[in-house]
């Protein structure tokens, strides 16, 4: 569960299939040790990929700052950048995606998206 760092990036591929990319931040809260040492919050950023109905839902109702719940599979891919350097990207391909809390729920039919469970 985490917050969106920016609005979803949605595009349409083969035969109008929607694909959304999200940047989701999760934060492990800091704490204080018995010795008085303060351990700060630690935030991790996750690249999330949604397909079909979930991507269309995100395009309409999900915005920067919203709290979302994601379950899925981790996938890693590589590509060569403009300088020929191999870069690696780790993504979560969502099987379950839910909008938990929104800055503004106006216009959203519910707080849950359709289950994108099947991909073709």
Question: Could you characterize the architecture of this molecule?
Answer:
There is one protein chain. The protein has 120 residues and is mainly beta. It has one domain: Beta Barrel (OB fold (Dihydrolipoamide Acetyltransferase, E2P)). It contains one helix and eight strands; from the N terminus they run ββββββαββ. The protein has one helix at residues 52-61; strands spanning 2-4, 9-13, 17-28, 31-32, 38-39, 42-51, 67-80, 86-101. A five-stranded mixed beta barrel has the order 1-3-6-8-7. Strands 4-5 form a two-stranded antiparallel sheet. β2 and β3 (17-28) form a beta hairpin. The protein is globular. The two termini are 26 Å apart.
Portion of residues within helices:
under 10%
How many domains? Answer: 1
What is the average of the pLDDT values? 88
Uncertain spans: 109-120
Q: Topology as H/E string?
A: EEEEEEHEE
Strand line-up in the sheet with most strands: 1-3-6-8-7
| Total count of strands | 8
The number of helical runs is 1
By CATH, the superfamily comes out as: Nucleic acid-binding proteins
Q: Can you tell me the CATH class?
A: Mainly Beta
Derived from helix and strand composition plus strand pairing, the structural class reads: mainly beta
Name given to the CATH architecture: Beta Barrel
